[in-house]
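CHAIN AND CONFORMATION:

***
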Amino acid sequence: MFKKLDNIDTAFRHVRTFTLVVVLASALISGFALYKSFTTVNRMQDKIYVLANGKAIEAYASDRRDNIQVEGRDHVRNFHHYFFTLDPDDKVIRQNITKALYLADNSAKGVYDDLKENGYYAGIISGNISQAITIDSIQVDIGSYPYRFRCQATQQIIRPTSVVTRSLITEGSLRNVSRSDNNPHGFLIERWRTIDNRDLSTENRN
């Protein structure tokens, strides 16, 4: 009788130990599965797929600070392109200037108003003049905020009888603003000013 009770007690202890081992193993497996799931989800959130020419290309998300230099230079480049690329067409001038003014504050608007009041844009239209710009270099200092920048470029003013090449050096600062369709980089140019804009050469057209 007592031997049977001992056997039952021993069997119960074995079953209890086995059950405890199974529960602990299940808990460990569940914890590991949850950990791997969270790490996989976090890793996938850092990936972006861009569709180009029917192919999905993987891109990676990164902190904005990692891209300040690149995005800041492109913002400054776009502003100068739109502000200084002009053709003898009132609609083209208005479209380009409007795009440029979305990227800068009243310092750029003031320059535009002064040029317009002095008949600069009217002279471009009446004189069949085109104006183009080539960006030579853009430096953005991210050591302090707002970020200071300097842009060095070359202008070409194409008249019916000549082509004038001019140097252009401007500077200002970049402030963070919300991104939008009109301002995809989320910067605003402030205190923009021209520090050099002189003739380099004049070439007659045949």
